[in-house]
Amino acid sequence: MMQKIKRIMEKNFKLLLRTKSSALIIILGPLILISLLGLAFSNTQPYALSVATYSPEFNELSNSMLEKLNEQQFTVTKYPSEEACITKVKQAIAHVCLIFPKDFEISQMSSNNITFHVDLSKINLVWNVLEVISQKVASRSTEISEDLTQTLVKSLDFTKGEVSTNLPNLVELSIKTSQLETINADMLRTLHGINLKLDEEGFKVGNLENAVSLYNEKSRKVVSRALDLIDNLEGSYGKFNFTASQQLAVDDVLDTAEEDLLTLEKDLQELYGSGTDTLIGGLLSNLNTKLEDTKAQLAEAANSREIINQNVQHTKALLETNIEKINQLQVALDKINDNIGGIEILDPTKIVSPFTTTIRPVAVDTYFNYLFPTLMVLIIMITGILLGSTLMIVEKKSRAFFRNAITPTHDTTFLTGLFLTSFVLLLFQIIVFLIVAGVFFKANVFATFAVTPVIIFFVITFFILTGMLVGALFKSEETTTLAAISFASVFLFFSSAILPIESMPKILQKIAAYNPFVLSDNMLRQSIIFEFGYGQLIGNLLLLVFYIALFFALLLYAQHAFKVHTLYKIHKQKNIPLEIAELEKKEYPAGWKGSWMKWKEKRQVKKEILRRKRELWLQKQAEKKRQVQQQPVQATQEKSHGFRAWVQNRRARKLQRQAEKQQRSPELPAKHDFWPFQREARKDVQERIDFLKKELMEK
Amino acid sequence: MLQEEKMGQGGQGRQEPVLKTENVAKRFRASVLEDVNLQIYPGEIFGIIGVSGAGKTTLLELLIGFMKNDKGKILFKSFEALAMQGSSYRSVFAEQRKFRSLFGFAAQVPSFYDDLTVEENMAYFGSLYNLSEQSIRENTKTILNLVGLDEHREALAANLSGGMQKRLDIACAMIHNPKILILDEPTADLDVLLRKQMWDLVRAINAKGTTVIIASHFLDEIESLCDRIALLHSKKIAWQGSVDELKKHYTKSEEIHLETISGNYEKVIQALKAKKLDISDMRREGRKLVIYTQKAELALHHLIHILEKLGEHILDVELKLPSLSEVFESITRKSG
Predict the structure, then answer these.
(1) Closest partner CB to A407 (pick from B129, B192, B221)
(2) Does residue A546 have a pLDDT over 90?
(3) How many angstroms from the chain centroid is the CA of residue B246?
(4) Closest by Cα among A113, A135, A134 to A61
(5) What is the pLDDT of residues A577-595, one digit of tens each?
(6) Do A615 and A672 touch, CB atoms closer than 8 A?
(7) FRET pair for A324, CA 20 to 30 Å: which of A88, A192, B43, B125?
């Protein structure tokens, strides 16, 4: 079996290398590829971006942003309108368009929204562009933030100072307010203590009036009695044995007394008379009036007191509130003081950016090294699938396929030979790739020499088997190539090569995790860049081995199932006749004359071939006609009239005419192209005739 | 070599067939073959004839076990087993690997690698038959001499002419010294000269003891080469046997075609009629006189005598058994 496989591989290599273009591609292809990739990616420069920008009015702030971008070797171009700016992005002249608003400044009233216009269709570039530009804008924004924060910190310091300075005042205010409250409370108490009740009863004005009235009455009675007495006396002189002189004296006294009593009565009348014109009455009336006034005043005073009370209460409440507020203020200021005092970080830089990030690659430093494993898997995949499928379909389409199929050599041997051929070719390319990458572009390919080659072996095996399976399933080169590209595309799209797997829906992420391309990429990255060992890669490796076994089984089945079918489809197709194939080899003069000659000869040959085929066909038709003629009556009875009968009869007449024509032209071969060989038969007969003639002569 | 002498080599009753079929049927979308019973004996040239599309290639591919028959059996016995009494037949499909070493197949479309040389093709296919390097070298030398490609051993197969490619194809089929060589339409698309060369080659191969099975729709070559033939018509074997048996079975008369310088045959006809020979019909066909008789030798004898008497000069005299094509037509007409 090994001998057979070796022969098959030799045959495949000979077939491949005898085509100079194939040989060149196989040898030079990887060299060119690795050179281009290395030159393209072996650098650490950031992306060179072109930035378009527009603002209705560029100011210091927006210009400072743009200066920041210019520092990083970005090309910044200002455009006269927003539309022009956006159009540049659409035309791929600029990578991003920045639109600054009109009132772009740091103030309370301004809008500071910078709009980024990007082309999301540039999937691989757009997020990097956004990240880079955002970084730069954020950097400038950070600087501004630091300035603003510095201002804030200063304000805070000042506030703290003022608070500290004025806190004692507040305390004093609090104390005084408390004192005010106390005074207020005293006032309130005092106010409450003022007795504004008028004890009218105490004045006993009524009693006084009664008493005055009583005294007035009594006085009048007394006076009256006295007068009465006087009168009585006067009248009673006789009783007394007064002397004239005595009587006169007594009369004088009694007159004087009467006058006095009358004056008293008059005085008493003036004093105690009702109404307000008497003294006592006036006084009483005045007293009543004053009492009323006083009562009114006291009532008014009570009202005022009430009002004052209310105001004092209100003042008290206000003072209480003030005290509370002052206390709260005090507490707040204490807190503010404490908080401000408690702020440990006062550095604006640290406030704006409390923590910084440093991105360190876990391994190497150039884009090439990052991309190297993925590039290698990509090359293996595309080359493996295309090579496997192409070799497979070329073998199937070759003329020798049938002969291979009828030899006592199992399909597995052919498949193994084909696989090993593809494997050696691809391995050669990968070795060239690795050597050039390692030597010229310092790719870290030799770090894990115990692991990486094994992974590369399995990866190559898988993709070659995939290509061979595609070649086994399809029947033409075009379909096979399309199918191979489709397979490779599916592997590629469901990987992180174009879009991150993490951006896909969950279910697709799970499926993509089992994508052989993803498995291979992960394993190679981990082994080359992170120097993982077998222990960490065993899971993915076993899964890949499983895929290999599965695809090999499918390949065997497909090869077996489609072999006969394929042969029938391929080899039963119309083949180019040998005459035309020979015409293709014939040399013709160069130019249109040669082409015309070639066309003419081919036409003649094709005519001849057609003529032969026509003869065979005529033979068949004649046979059919004879069959029809054998049952003429039935045929006639069945189809004696009608369109079908007319067609059939017409066909029969035509065939008859053709047959007769053939008979009339003896120069054409009667039926087949064998009439020259009748000469052989004639020779034999001629010998017999000669023999008979000889016999006759002898007789 | 005349046909009659060849008849002794083939035919039933010599020995057991090396390859036989029993009620074989094959169907693709429609039935292609039904109830095919064949016996092919060692050392003979066996022809399979039929119109295009009759199923000849299908039958051949069934014989080699390339496809599985739907019904019946295809059995073979190795040449060693043939020599042993009591040995049993084996199924071709079941023991494909063993059987494939016994036969070589040259399809209608030559099957080799265009971008390999003649020698490289031979070496490659020889290796697939588990031959040693020594055997491959020896066989290549012998076979290339036999097929006449020795001078072109270093030439790329694509650069060979049509006839040479056919010969290379046969050479590749014979690299492992098969006991049975199967040729499918070996002379299709060849010109007259090349066809003759091919026939000579086939005879030479057969002369070395190789059983040859030829499928062709060229009846003259079958008639010329084959010891026994099978006629495939309407999915069945309409006839199997030697060519002469076939002709005798299906025809009763022979034809004598006469052409004289004068072209005047009235007197000849009268004279022949007067002889009251067993002549069924005489008719003029162009410049020739065709005489249909069941006793052609006797009639020919008298005819020559009459012509001499009449002083007619013979341009051409031909004794024709009905051609195989005529017999074929007859059979196919009867089989319907």
Answers:
(1) B129
(2) yes
(3) 14
(4) A113
(5) 556 656 665 667 777 777 7
(6) yes
(7) A192
